[in-house]
Amino acid sequence: MVKLSIMRCKQIDFRKQNDPAYRNLSKSLGVLDLTALGIGATIGTGIFVLTGIAAARYAGPAVVLSFVTSGFAAALAALVYAEMAAAVPSAGSAYTYAYVTLGEFLAWMVGWSLVLGYGVAAGAVASGWSAYLASLLAAARIYLPAGIMSSPAQGGIINLPAILLPLFMTYFLIRGARQGAVFNRVVVMIKLSVVLVFLAVGASRINPSNWQPFFPLGVLGAIKGAAVVFFAYIGFDAVATAAEEVKDPQRNLPVGIIASLGISTILYILVALVLTGLVSYKYLDTAAPIAQALLAAGIRWGSLLVSLGALAGLASVLFATIFAQSRILFAMARDGLLPSWLAAVHPVYQSPYRITIGVGLFVSLVGGFLPIATIAEMANIGILSAFFITSLAVLALEKKIPPEKLPFRTPFSPYLPVLSALVSAYLAFNLSRLTWIRFTVWLALGMVIYFGYGYKYSLLNQTNELSSARTQIRPVFKRRP
After folding, report:
1. DSSP state of 233
2. DSSP string for residues in 409-423
3. What Cα–Cα distance (Å) separates residue 334 from each residue in 26, 31, 92, 95?
């Protein structure tokens, strides 16, 4: 029956995960690599792009509270993810967690939501990178034609840098997780150094009058701002997607998730305070707010330095988001919900190269042709829906496995996972109506693909059909007495 079979759950055989024939991906990442991956995915668009947009359009100086609210919601989700990642150290993140606990259909819908979330998130990053490149060139008095630096919705023809950067990151990712992790670690160090320089320089130029009024658009504006900037916190999910490539995942995954989120949250709050104190929030509605604020304050060298750091920082975010997206699709293809040829692993680099190439091309198109504000909201709703389902998946996990046998358990469970689900749902409902309409259309498309392809070709379905056929054939070949 369809009603029951779409709820079939995947069994994780941990012995098989140590078999190279099953795993396919090399275990090469440690705690430092995971923390750098999480920070690389988190510190970037939120600081360098969305801080200004959220302040100008929604929250004003109260964008600081927007980051606190979103950080609280992300912390709840991160603890839930830490438990799931330690218990189910397999590629796929929330998709795999739902498959193991809640069934195939919900797993597909979560995976499909993450395809939207990560795909458009990476596009937003590419678009922000292009804006900082333009700002950097402008500081050096070099001006490129607007037609090749902006999407059609912003009056341009094509955002060419936003198309080229994802393709460059795709090349690094094809060469494997370890090689990419070394590149990412270097870039993250550059990015953190630039953020600290901005805090030091900007703090000396703060004008407290810029913080008045603190709630220019009311408390509701700060909450709406939290729903928008939540996009900035999705980086720790990228850590979970790397589970199959992690050494000692039961220990290293929770540490990497919590450490990367904690460092990122502190930096977000400090940058929001300094940025809104440096200039009026009204002038921050730009894809390169930090560079523009320093330029407006007369700190041209600072603007130049931040633009350089932003280029490095956003590149690391793009690296992490394309990495996460490709690993989720890899898990879905390996489970038969997508064509299995997509799960092919490169014979030399041991990376899912076909899916990585496909994701890179998709991200290039999103970044090159869509406006960043639209992209950010679509990313948020995709990720929030995945966080909501993962919070429920933890409750199901604890019914299947005695809590004392779990490598890591969410504190105050089941209350904290329930709170995480409620907060994620609340933030999602504060997104615009148009975003919800687009998300509904996306989910409808996902259901068509699942029932048209995934349901039939799922490995679980194939296994069930084989078992059923054997049951029916066996009586025919009974030995004669």
Report:
1. G
2. --TTTTHHHHHHHHH
3. 16, 26, 10, 12
159 phi and psi angles, rounded to 5 deg:
-90, 85
The yes-or-no verdict on residue 17 having pLDDT over 90 is no
Token pair listed for 134: 């333009």
> What six digits make up the tokens of 421?
């689900």
- Pairwise CA distance, residues 362 & 126, whole Å: 12
Query: 314: closest CA among 438, 110, 136?
Result: 136
Write down the residue that tokens 């070709």 correspond to.
457
Which two tokens mark 403?
Answer: 């809590």
Among residues 199, 218, 264, which one has the least CA distance to residue 43?
A: 264
Give the SS3 label for residue 159. Answer: strand
The span from the CA of 59 to the CA of 70, in Å, is 13
Query: What are the tokens at 233?
Result: 């916190």
Nearest to 445, CA basis, from 382, 403, 357: 382
Which one-letter amino acid corresponds to residue 59? A
Where does 216-299 have alpha helices with state H?
218-229, 235-241, 249-278, 289-296
Q: What is the distance between the alpha carbons of residues 291 and 277, in angstroms, rounded to a whole number?
A: 14
Question: Could you tell me the two tokens for 262?
Answer: 């904690």
pLDDT of 1 reads 46
Q: Is the confidence at residue 125, as pLDDT, over 70?
A: yes
What phi and psi values does residue 246 have, to the nearest 5 degrees?
-105, 135
pLDDT at 14 over 70: no
Give 405-409 contacts, CB < 8 A, sequence gap 24+.
Answer: 406/83, 406/86, 406/87, 407/86, 407/87, 407/250, 407/251, 407/254, 408/82, 408/83, 408/86, 408/87, 408/250, 408/254, 409/83
**124 φ, ψ to 5°?**
-65, -40
Q: How many residues does the chain have?
A: 481
CB count, 10 Å around CB of 418? 16
46 closest CA partner among 376, 337, 343: 376
The two structure tokens encoding residue 464:
């069930």
Question: What pLDDT does 375 receive?
Answer: 63
Distance CA 417, CA 394 (A): 7
Instruction: For residue 240, give the nearest of 97, 120, 442 by alpha carbon.
Output: 97
The pTM of the full predicted model, rounded to 2 decimals, is 0.76
The single-letter code of the amino acid at 332 is M
478 exposed, middle or buried (CB, 10 Å; 0-12, 13-18, 19+)?
exposed
**Across all residues in the chain, what is the average pLDDT?**
80
Write the DSSP string, 383-415. Answer: HHHHHHHHHHHHHHHHHHS-GGGSSS--TTTTH
